[in-house]
Records
---
Amino acid sequence: MITAINPTDGKVLAKYALHDDAYVDTALSGAAAAQGEWRKVAIEKRVTLLTAMAKVLREGKARYAEMITREMGKPIAEAEGEIEKCAYNCDFYAEHAPKYLADEPLASNATESFVEFDPLGVVLAIMPWNYPFWQFFRFAAPSFAAGNGAILKHANNVPQCALAIEDIMREAGCPEGLFKTLLIEPAKVAAIIADDRIAAVTLTGSTEVGAIVASQAGKALKKQVLELGGSDPFIVLADADLEQAATVAVKARYINVGQSCVNAKRFIVEESIADRFVDLFCSGVAKLKIGDPMERDTNIGPMARANLMTGLHAQVEKTVAAGATLKMGGKPMEGDGFYYPPTVLDNVRPDMVAFCEETFGPVAAIIRVKDAEEAVLLANQTEFGLGSALWTEDLGRARKLASDIDAGAVFINGMVASDPRYPFGGIKRSGYGRELGVYGIREFVNIKTVWIGPAKVAK
């Protein structure tokens, strides 16, 4: 049994029976058969499915957003933004996929030679709860456009969202069987990865789970894309626009109640302007409204699960015990639900938990450094490498420093975000492979060389 719990009050929303082995087997067979036909459909016709997906998402935005908020606590305005972003992603690939997957001519000794991009097959998508619609549609739009099918194993605390995605695909006219949601326990995933009807795996989730899935997929010689944890640095140099940097920093840390791999988590600030930045940052944090996520002016709702809240609090306690300064927040809120207030830790050092570990919730760690070189050194002093932000008015220096930062993305004077126009992914223990952009759509294709003779005779 899978149970959906409202994190606002801890009450049960719904319970769902798990799919049995027979259901899983039928789903896999159906997806494999449907994908065999889908790959034959011209891409110009395949992308009409994406346009229909966008339409269904927008028409049901209010309902889907409320579902997100009820199941995992995202403030309703952010949940609506998530649905719109999914629709935009579908529209983007509907427009650009034919160009991204068009044959590419090659210069060679052949009469003609080119690269074509063929679908791999059915992709198993293992998705998290923090962006329950976006994480799936981020993968799905380019994958369906490329001619693949998909099986979704969603996080078990968002079963309503998982089943709603299946309804959306059906309403959009997805061919029968090409996509299926499975409600199963994590222990069942290994057998699905190993199944010959699955061609590849994509996972967004924790680094620990990513290592397990990578091992299972590697053993089966299946292609993988992994988007895992992050402890993104937000570097503020002495010549930065401090008011703007602090304003963006508050959003970068506390959007989605701090529960995102690409939330800014470590704020690395030059010592000469650190006091001023901390004052501005704390002033902005104090203005955030904590409350019912269904209210439109709420900025901070509950964390998604009770165990996430208690784990985060343990990290805060350890960091303060090690000598960090607690500026704001610092303990779970009384009353119903899984509420943890926006928390600010100052004078955090590299040997402290809030620096060394990913803090997946509304906790900001401020680290003071003497100069830009030390800032980059500490930014890289992490096992993660997903996103990063760098604030300075000297763009020439910023470009040079960006090359020294170990991350999949560097945003200069801006907030890290995913966008279908450019690739998204990480290095080190933040995973590998890319989603979005032209690079994302080519992750789950066979990049095939076609050589047509006879060979040209050298003159």
---
Amino acid sequence: MEFLVKSARLETLKTATLVVAVGEGRKLGEAAKAIDAAAGGAISALLKRGDLAGKVGQTLLLHSLPNLKAERVLLVGSGKEHVLSDRQFRKMIAAVNGVVKGLGGSDATLALDEVAVKGRDAYGKARLMVETLADGAYVFDRFKSQKAEPKALKKITLLTEKADLAEVERGSLHARAIATGMAFTRDLGNLPPNLCHPSFIAEEAKALAKAHKNLKVEVLDEKKLKELGAGAFLAVAQGSEQPPRMIVLNYQGGKKEDNPFALVGKGITFDTGGISIKPAAGMDEMKYDMCGAASVLGTFRAVLELQLPINLVGLLACAENMPSGGATRPGDIVTTMSGQTVEILNTDAEGRLVLCDTLTYAERFKPQAVIDIATLTGACIVALGSNTSGLMGNNDALVKQILKAGEYADDRAWQLPLFDEYQEQLDSPFADIANIGGPKAGTITAGCFLSRFAKKFHWAHLDIAGTAWVSGGKDKGATGRPVPLLTQFLLDRIK
């Protein structure tokens, strides 16, 4: 989809579909008033018949209005509030998208500049609008013998005032990059596990580096991981025929002397639970257990498209967790790269085992801050549902920065505590630490486990178990979150 930004008079605009807002109570916005006047009051006359109440997201498509060069006019309800919330605005734009992508016209023009959104200027509204439109156009039909019919809609133009052209263009540019990163993340998450295994993800990272000179990729194989002493990481993979990979991405967009930020992604390409095997129902969804790694790759895709002036390291902890005669057993004790020993009480708590060694590896980059992203605990879905990611960390300033970025990106997180009392649940009589802390506060004790390997840098942990994919039924699939949050966090660091 191509997105353009321009300023023009509505009544003289040649377009397949012109979109304008109508408030609740059939109140015409300024754009709607302008085309209503040009069309001799045709819109007012139609609204008096009661066809559109103006509630948020309601639509009414009009054809061949007199004295207009637009072939169609789409009226969209903007509600009764003077200022919309992010959610209301997204609902409105999604409704527009649902109509225009099903029409025969090759372009659409949105004259929605006057719609006010709480806390958002011209840049912020353009970001939300283009992200919603681009993400709404996503299709994954790679394995369908009958592909989706190609849509006629190829171009969307955002109309704005001349004074706001630069900011709307900047918002559109950032949104397109974020949407591209989200699509990349969704593609990886939606791929089947017989194709998307650790070596495949490594090849995807290499392909990304091949296309961008300022990205370097190194792949650490099983032999290298053994040399590093990554006993926890290797324990997860030892039951699978698919070899593990730690994938290191290094983007140099900032000054050479600037320490990088680091993103660490859990990449369990399929999670049976290992010997602590999961129930069969819904196990197909365990292909999404690599969405943390996929979101790091998607964020890198957005950063590379924007060529952000920042230094960034990505560490993807990729393995497959399978049961076999060689698999790790409950009761096994492994030695991590940090030297700490772990008693594995449950082999289905494997994400923290690949992440702990990867966090230790992150120390060598002397990062300004590290954020790990993982579909880590079902307990997070119980606590926060599928709308909000769980957040913990060892640095209050970093946590606040992530919360702020999530709020602005409309990809929110919520902080959970990391009190010392929870650490006691991980005590083991045989090793330094157990890999689970019992049935209580599972998300928090998982964060406590990781915190023991993140003491040498500012660190935050995002549990995206509920937000990384839509579960169950024909609508299941990867969401591309938290690429918007992570990209916004990095955008905020360069201001």
---
Amino acid sequence: MPVEQDALVPLPRTMNVTDLELPDSPLSARAALAEAMALHEEGNFEGAESRYREVLAQKYRVAEVLPLLAGLLGRLSRPKDALAAWDQLLTLEPDHAVALHETGLTLHWLGRTVEAITMLERACAADPDNPITIGNLAVVLADAGRNLEAIRHFRLALTLQPDNLHLRHQVRRLGSGSVPFWHIPMMNDVRRNDAFEAAIKAAIGVVGPEARVIDIGAGSGLLSLMAARAGAQKVVACEMEPMIADMAQQIVSQNGYADRITVYAKPSTELVIGAELDAPADVLVSEILSSDLLTEKVLDTFEDAHRRLLAHNAIVIPRMASAMGCLVASENLGAYAFVGEVSGFDLSAFTAFAPQRLPIHGTMTAWERLSDDLELVRLDLRQNKHDATLARLRIPVTASGRALGIVQWMHIDLWQGVTFDNHPDRYTDGGWL
């Protein structure tokens, strides 16, 4: 995103005309400076530049004239010349906050982002309570893809300028842009939450409060909080998206469980016994299942946890997961999956690019069932290893129609008598499609 010049960048410090009436000032330099400032104010930047350079040639008030010249050169879209003027000022005053700030912005304008960040960090150190400088550092960090650092600096700037709507917008924009939309509806899924909490309570009841719990793919930290509320004294959570992990740790602290839950911003494959975990975990809780069951490397993650992070008799939640489905017909879905004749032309060859899977909501898309429900694949997540398999399924047809494909959902077994599914006939909320 562009640096918000008008909202965040201060104009260089200027001088009052009466400051020119110093008795020991060389008359020609004083006159040239007065003329330069007048031309600058009139918008005659080329003429002002010439006069500023005359003043500098006479070495008159150099540290005050250089910011005026550098700012003017920036207005003339001559960033390299502006940078040279700022560099000259920094040679005289290495901790000049405005020069550091403007140098950082100019370097960013020139695409030299790493150098820009360094300069803006120096500017923040020189003027630590300036929300404009902190905000611009955050902008450049975000442009560099360093979103977590950016959002932390935006929040810091907001503590200094809490009514700045631009800063508030940037915090919201960065957060929402880094977090998939389904997180919030999934958190609000009461059926899902109740099922997981019932299983977690049962597991802690069996193992006892000394149970070591690991939460893989922690998200907001909800399942970790459930484990702590159920009595677990030691919960290690990991979340690979740094911004989400940072928020999860805040949420844990706000709810009073920071002494029992630690969130690491890394994937579970980078956790190590003796580092993040003091011993193998007794309970694994993980909700990394996706709408089509396996796209988040579920099996790889669970197998790695069994191999390195869990006690051999650890309780795994969920313990089983099945992909369910039924054969369907649907003109609506067909329009998303296939193309034929369009405006009198045969475009059917383009169907070769059609997606193999489409996310749909059972209550929002019209389709007709052509078979009963069928278990497509069943996975025992308590197993240490899952071998690749290829299965051919026979699906008895129960109604006539043109078969478009299979509508698939999931069924998960969390504990004895505790299950959850997103069956399309009765599931109307939550994050799964």
---
Amino acid sequence: MPPIAPDLAELARRLFAELRAADHDGTGITRETYGLGETAAMRRIEKLAQQAGLATEWDAAANLHITLPGTDPSLPAAACGSHLDSVPQGGNFDGAAGVIAGLLALLGAQRDAQRTGPRARTLLLLVMRGEESAWYGRPYLGSSALFGAFDPKWLDLPCLQDSSRTLRDAMAGEGAEVAVVAARRKLLDPASLSHFVELHIEQGPVMVARGVPVGLVSGIRGNFRHPGARCQGEAAHSGAVPRWLRRDAVLGAADLAMRLDASWRTLLERGEDLVMTFGIFTTDPREHAMTRVPGEVRFTLEYRSESEATLEDFLALAESEAAEIARERRVRIELGPAVRTPPAVMDARLLAHAQALCGAAGLPHETLASGAGHDAAIFANAGVPSAMVFVRNEHGSHNPHEAMEMEDFLEGAAVLQALLLQGAEVVGR
């Protein structure tokens, strides 16, 4: 597994520094989905690619395609990519690390071709729009559009930071052909790709805790979300109503949280993949008081897993526990409909090949599930064999304190480059 050349490593350092200087808002990095900052960052990558002699084009969703052409156009292209938008006041590596790693891979392959002759297979770097949901409430906008999976209703979503602007306005303002996207026309045929590889910083603490620089992703967790769950009881005077006559909404909801937490632990002990979160848990501030038995609690419930069956089973468990608690405490618990995002399984052949590459190079690595979503999920679920490489990163993600070390990035970029160049033969496409 050849390392990244020193001059390309220096290019990566310079690019990270330039992106930070351009988009630092005083606290963190802010590049709005279909906004000026996202476009400017993409133009910066495009200019470098063009200067190196790579081909570039923009599709109808304003995704950027960077190509190192091969000599046999009948072969499916080997693809990599990521995104450049960020959450408000985010970090400098989320998304950008994948784009820069992909650019290094194409430049390295171009340099090799100058010595050994051109490759038969085309290499493709995709810089995709709108991976983050922080701006319009929906993730994977650009990658969904690639495969005709962009729901036209999303166009009317208001910007969460400025409700006077819709996604339609933002897309049109940054050059997207909105009518083409709304018609769900495929911008990229999944069969035209041999495989897809994405590099990303890890957004949790596992790799730091385990002391490994590179992670190999087994799958991207799907999720079920209940944004409008509530427990309804009966408001009462806290001093006048004994326990046996109370219909306490807070204790009913708390019972549900604790029972599901206990079930979560049991499932983990059985080897199931699952994470669960009660993200919002509140009584109405206009009504709650220290001396009032709460009559209603509103909460959210989210659970994620690599396994669709585990998600379905946990939904059934949550509904069963809610019904039992409702009877015991004489309350009503409504989870509401689940908003579902399917899990995505990374290709087992590519994962095994990546494990073998790291093993042969003596590179410490960890195989783990991705708890956060990524564009690679869209590719995998469109039928494109996909792989993900994580790079160790301290202090989590979606905050200004992301702390990826350049040495770790270069190790991960070398793995991505090897998977990009060798993966087509691994999957037989």
